[in-house]
């Protein structure tokens, strides 16, 4: 492939349209040449944000059209399997926004299609490029807390009422549940840091706050202009213009056992006043914990002695600052890796196998919480697919 700009097609220009803007780098490696979205307002915004882009209503003009080197699929979760498989069968390299899909079966269909066609597949798990995540992983890899034994994650989704209960995210048919949609990020990070995949899950959850809110939009009514604010919509009961249907949980708790014996817990709440993620990783020789996950955050390590509660950790590492960009600078790094992958291939920090295993854990945990917390086994992935993707999407033994 030449060093000229890659011609990119885009499907969808909603909340993750920011990735299309990040990828649009005329003269610097890539440009978005065509974008499909059925919403005229989204197409108009894309035309303003991406100079020179051609906008269309039918995704097939992008997926099946000529002159596109790769496609970014940024559409709602339940559309991923159909759209990704169409692009893969057409031989067009795919960037697929996380989660990979909303069911285990959908994930496996995508992976089998990529394997059968040999078309490159990249999944947008941007948190693997977040400075706080990479710092924690480096600390673990250096052995500062010994061998990881347990991981506890708390996700305070302070803007959950705005971002997930006013549109398609609020409906099971589109997401399976927010435990899958949101936790796919954190479960993937958990797997990456702990060095294993979830095998058994048990979960509890409920729709505690937004389910009782009667202030819903009428079916077909667009989101209100003030659907999202940084300083309003508090307390949660003051939310207005919620989705007509809300049947996903707004709080969930999950226990997990990984295939390497690590025990983990994940908690997610969509009606907290603050928005951040807190990771605690405990090994057999210490523990680490992040305080904040953006600019100014630190990761603390306690590993020299036993003591009563103390805030003065044995080591304190500031989270490196990245250039501007979404998710603490992770989005530009994610796009950089994808463009490199399209040009030259090879292994990547993101992983289709890991993306599938994160969805599988989230899907089975959602089944558990809706069945009174009964344990569920997470199905393993076909070893042939594992080998293919772990080998950089090349069949083992083949260059």
From TrEMBL:
It comes from the Bacteria. This is Predicted dehydrogenase. One of its GO terms (molecular function) is nucleotide binding. Residues 307-330 are annotated as: Disordered. Residues 139-373 form the Gfo/Idh/MocA-like oxidoreductase C-terminal domain. Residues 8-125 form the Gfo/Idh/MocA-like oxidoreductase N-terminal domain. Belongs to the Gfo/Idh/MocA family. InterPro entries: Gfo/Idh/MocA-like_OxRdtase_C (IPR004104), Gfo/Idh/MocA-like_OxRdtase_N (IPR000683), Gfo/Idh/MocA_oxidoreduct (IPR051317), NAD(P)-bd_dom_sf (IPR036291).
